[in-house]
Design a protein that fits this description.
Oligomer: heterodimer
CATH topology of the largest domain in chain B: Aldehyde Oxidoreductase, domain 4
Distance between the termini of chain A: 22 Å
CATH class of the largest domain in chain B: Alpha Beta
Number of helices of chain A: 6
Strand order of the largest sheet of chain B: 3-7-1-14-11-12-13
Distance between the termini of chain B: 81 Å
Number of domains of chain B: 3
Number of helices of chain B: 19
Largest sheet of chain A: 8 strands, mixed
Number of domains of chain A: 1
Strand content of chain A: 35-45%
Helix content of chain B: 25-40%
């Protein structure tokens, strides 16, 4: 089961800060709800884990992250994450190319192109929802990322953003996620704008 | 003198052949008193659970059992490495291939068995499976059988590299299993070249799964002191399992006891020997304790025998009046990662070459190529006799395609091509000898019953209004009762079956067969056969099956073979007893055997009917007063090797209305006429037909095991896999004609599979017929709302005015 996603998220902060955050792998990874870097092997290899909770069931993925390329001139980073859930019943791979595009005026945007492949039980059960779920995960990621970039600035706004960033859930909550997927689906059905 | 009324009364009391006797099994089933494999409890019993592959195709780099073994309550974690010294890491399949018991270096389909964990209880075993760490290196999978033989296709079966001589033919590619050809190729090609009309249609028969209510499982118990192995198992063929287990383990067959207790449905799924059984047996032998393993629904749908996955191209050559001159068929068969089909050994495509159907087709040729893919192995019947469903689907669809091309009515074209009643016994272009049939009468009866002309008129009016209504007609011929041992064997054992009857001194009887009921009601119907043959009331006859220590050897129950083979064995065993009873009666009445005649439940003296001995009296005498030189007792055993298959047939009509906005198909009417020769229990026949039609409805309208391009199975739970309940199931109307089989002792043919085989193409025919006026000749199953809606959309029919 493979899903390709291309997303653009506006960030209310300067491109230089965003680029700095993007290269700080542990910090960047923590923008992903439920994810953390557990070990740095060398400059480009890390170990990490992600926890997904769907109802009473929790799936924890352990995996390796490899930074394939950092292109400072274009503010572009390419990485591959590979993980297996701790029960050995599913595995996932994500190839991500993230670019920070400077919009001037202290603003920028995060452009993400990713390819997610899921095998095993996760694909059997979650296959139909995967695009929507990945969408939601990326949205939460972008919101956290944006908050962290803003927090790197000064003033009340930065403090508020830092507080928000600290509040983020410790794991991907599948039920809450499912709810936002359903809301998104009905909005698109009745002609409302999709939440992304 | 016995009056007619007296005879009728005595016959009624027997509850013999033709009686709608209530099922003897039901009181225990409806009270929850059945005894299934999962009900078996043994002292000191351990529980097993399976570690399975998340990948469709991957190399196993390492397996670490340490954490699992450290969990309190875990007794063993068994992998291929542990089975290797016993040479049990691979096992033979019924199709001449081998299959990994536990994945050996590689996994080749998702959910493949990798390690068996044995623990104190089911829950600990399940927890421990999550602690077994398996490191995989993923390999590219093949999911589409059309790509299996590409030059650069990844090799699925590394164990077969270089072995190009397959079990059935030369292999053309590392992922090729066999080529199987039948009929006359050159002659068929020649007819096609000169024919007035030819039609060609591609069709895919999707991968489905029988999904019986009870999943597979076993309880294995090895007694180290006695050296005996007892296995309770969900098997449709316990004796074959005993032979296989003995051959695999080296334990003498006399020390292996296989018991099939109550079985919650089989439908072909429980014919094979699965890795879980073998691994569980090994666990019991190694640990010296009973071990139970019962799979869950996901495991069952993902790994046990699927059915079909046949990719067929059919062609017909005909004259302009629609008279068929030749049939040509090419099939690509997806067998999954191991060839574990359950077919008679000589027929890698089963009895697919029954595909000339009910029609007098002079020339035919068929070719089937089997390929490996990274999907679960299997390829069983699913309520049909060895690929007969595929065969009937193909020919019935092709006849419709030809009718549409020539603009001939779909009933009329069948009448023009039917084998005529006077042509029986009829030898088909593929060499089958059809025993009996009357196809014209059957179709005529059905068309009148449904007012076919009226339906076509209504359809024309609806089409004019832009509404979608379809009428499907199918006139199928089945081939059941495998089979004559000159052509049919399983692992070298001829496909006979057996019955042993013992009549006790007080006139009741015990009978045992080599078959095994899975819900068909054998305990009820076998007793009826014996009742009619011996004049002993059905109520006084006990039927036992499924225990290899007591029942005579038989090949089991599948392919509707029980009545054609086991039923014949039963009638013939009973007749042996009656022949002895006749001698005893003559002795008791002091007359010659020739002076006696059989009268329901007794022998009477011809012309002096008051002089008679009832079977009850004869049974008593058999144990104290037999003629001089005769051994006492009243028992018989019969091993019956049938001279031919039986060929039941039927005519079905289905009427559907399709909503052109939602794609929802409503089955308005389904009329099924079946002819299974002599009818032993009409009520059970009706029940079997209702079940078969419902399973046919399931396949045609919703069932599908879907794999994505990565080899992930997407249809392996009841969230996705369609199992119709009373809510979805349409109303069934059943009817019958009786054309006895000339070679069966009772004139009976099999029946349970006919409704499945016959109904599936009827649903497709009805759905396609709704679009036929728009040039649609075929639509692949399942005909769920989404697929039908796509067709409506493609044709632009859903525009609102």
């Amino acid at each position: 089961m493979q899903v390709k996603l291309e997303k653009v998220f506006p960030i209310d902060g300067p491109a230089s800060n965003a680029w700095k955050l993007l290269q700080d792998i542990p910090e960047m990874a923590s923008c992903m709800p439920g994810a953390e870097i557990t070990e740095q092997i060398d400059d480009s290899n890390y170990k990490g884990k992600v926890k997904v909770k769907i109802g009473p069931a929790t799936a924890a993925f352990n995996g390796d992250i490899e930074i394939k390329n950092i292109d400072p001139a274009n503010h572009q980073l390419t990485m591959v994450g590979k993980g297996t859930d701790t029960k050995g019943t599913s595995s996932a791979t994500m190839e991500l190319t993230a670019t920070i595009r400077d919009l001037g005026d202290g603003k920028c945007e995060l452009v993400g192109v990713s390819e997610v492949t899921v095998t095993g039980k996760m694909a059997s059960f979650g296959g139909r929802m995967m695009t929507q779920v990945s969408d939601q995960i990326l949205k939460q990621f972008a919101a956290n990322f944006s908050n962290k970039v803003i927090a790197m600035g000064d003033g009340a706004e930065a403090e508020a953003a830092a507080a928000k960033a600290a509040e983020q859930p410790k794991e991907v909550n599948g039920l809450a996620l499912a709810w936002s997927v359903i809301v998104g689906f009905f909005k698109s059905l009745f002609g409302g704008k999709s939440t992304t | 003198m016995s009056s007619t009324a007296d005879t009728v009364e005595r016959e009624k009391n027997l509850q013999g052949i033709g009686c709608s006797r209530k099922r003897k099994e039901d009181p225990r089933f409806i009270q929850g008193k059945g005894n299934y494999v999962d009900d078996i409890k043994m002292p000191g019993m351990l529980f097993a659970d399976m570690v399975r592959s998340p990948h469709a195709h991957a190399r196993i780099k390492s397996i670490n059992k340490e954490k699992a073994l450290a969990l309190p309550g875990v007794h063993a974690v068994i992998t291929a490495e542990d089975l290797k010294p016993l040479n049990l890491h691979w096992m033979p399949t019924l199709a001449g291939d081998v299959q990994a018991v536990l994945a050996d270096e590689k996994v080749v389909f998702q959910q493949q068995e990798v390690a068996l964990v044995v623990a104190d209880d089911r829950y600990i075993a399940a927890d421990a499976t999550e602690l077994v760490e398996v490191e995989y290196e993923e390999l590219p999978p093949i999911v589409d059988p059309h790509k299996a033989m590409d030059p650069d296709a990844p090799i699925i079966r590394e164990d077969l590299v270089g072995k190009m001589e397959g079990a059935h033919s030369k292999r053309l590619h590392d992922n090729h299993i066999f080529t199987w050809e039948v009929g006359q190729k050159d002659e068929t090609d020649r007819v096609f070249e000169t024919a007035e009309v030819t039609v060609k249609q591609e069709m895919t028969y999707q991968r489905v799964h029988p999904s019986p209510l009870e999943t597979c499982g076993c309880v294995a118990s090895f007694d180290k002191i006695k050296g005996t192995l007892t296995v309770y198992i969900t098997s449709q063929a316990p004796h074959v399992v005993r032979t296989v287990v003995s051959q695999l383990s080296g334990i003498p067959e006399s020390k292996v006891r296989i018991i099939s207790p109550d079985i919650g449905g089989g439908f072909g799924n429980k014919v094979g020997v699965y890795p879980g059984y073998v691994a569980t047996i090994v666990a019991s032998i190694v640990l010296g304790r009973p071990v139970k393993w019962v799979e869950d629904r996901i495991e069952h749908l993902s790994t046990t025998a699927f059915a079909r996955d046949y990719h067929m191209t059919g062609e017909l050559a005909a004259d302009k009046d629609g008279r068929i001159k030749a049939l040509r068929v090419n099939v690509l068969a997806d067998h999954g990662a191991f060839d574990a089909c359950a077919d008679p050994s000589k027929f890698p495509a089963g009895l697919f070459h029954i595909c000339t159907g009910s029609y007098d087709i002079p020339t035919a040729y068929a070719r089937v190529d089997g390929v490996y893919t990274n999907k679960a192995p299997g390829g069983v019947a699913y309520r049909c006799s060895f690929r007969v469903t595929e065969a009937v689907y193909l020919i019935e669809r092709m006849v419709d395609v030809l009718a549409q091309k020539l603009n001939i009515d779909k009933a009329e074209i069948r009448f023009r091509n039917f084998i005529k009643p006077e042509q029986f016994p009829y030898t088909s272009a593929f060499g089958w000898e059809y025993d009996s049939g009357n196809y014209h009468a059957a179709l005529k009866k059905v068309l009148e019953a449904v007012d076919y002309e009226g339906l076509r008129k209504e359809q024309a009016e609806k089409r004019a209004r832009g509404e979608l209504m379809g009428i499907g007609i199918v006139t199928f011929t089945e081939i059941v009762g495998a089979g004559p041992s000159k052509t049919c064997d399983i692992l070298g054992i001829g496909m006979f079956d057996s019955c042993e009857i013992r009549v006790h001194p007080t006139g009741s009887a015990l009978a045992r067969m080599g078959t095994i009921t899975q819900g068909q009601g054998h305990q009820t119907t076998y007793a009826q056969i014996i009742a009619s043959e011996l004049g002993i009331p059905s109520e006084d006859i006990q039927i036992e099956e499924g225990d290899t220590d007591t029942a005579p050897y038989g090949l089991g129950t599948y392919g509707s073979r029980t009545t054609p083979v086991g039923g014949a064995a039963t009638a013939k065993a009973a007749r042996k007893i009656r022949a002895k009873a006749r001698k005893i009666a003559a002795h008791l009445l002091e007359v010659s055997e020739d002076d006696l005649e059989w009268d329901v439940d007794r022998f009477r003296v011809k012309g002096s009917p008051d002089q008679a001995k009832t079977m009850k009296e004869i049974a008593w005498a058999a144990y104290n007063n037999v003629p001089e030189g005769m051994e006492p007792g009243l028992e018989a055993v019969e091993y019956y090797d049938p001279p031919n298959f039986t060929y039941p047939f039927g005519a079905y009509v289905c009427v559907v209305d399709i909503d052109k906005y939602t794609g929802v198909t409503k089955i308005r009417r389904f009329y099924a006429l079946d002819d299974c020769g002599t009818r032993i229990n009409p009520m059970i026949i009706d029940g079997q037909i209702h079940g078969g039609l419902t399973e046919g409805f399931a396949v045609a309208m919703g069932q599908e095991l879907i794999y994505d391009e990565g080899g992930n199975i997407l249809g392996n739970s009841f969230m996705d896999y369609f199992l119709p309940t009373a809510v979805e199931t349409p109303h069934w109307e059943t009817d019958y004609t009786v054309t006895p089989s000339p070679h069966h002792p009772l004139g009976a043919k099999g029946v349970a599979e006919s409704p499945h085989v016959g109904s599936i193409p009827t649903f497709t025919a009805a759905v396609v017929d709704a679009f036929a006026h728009l040039g649609v000749t075929h639509m692949n199953m399942p005909h769920n709302a989404f697929n039908v809606w796509k067709k409506i959309h493609e044709l632009g029919l859903d525009k609102r005015s």
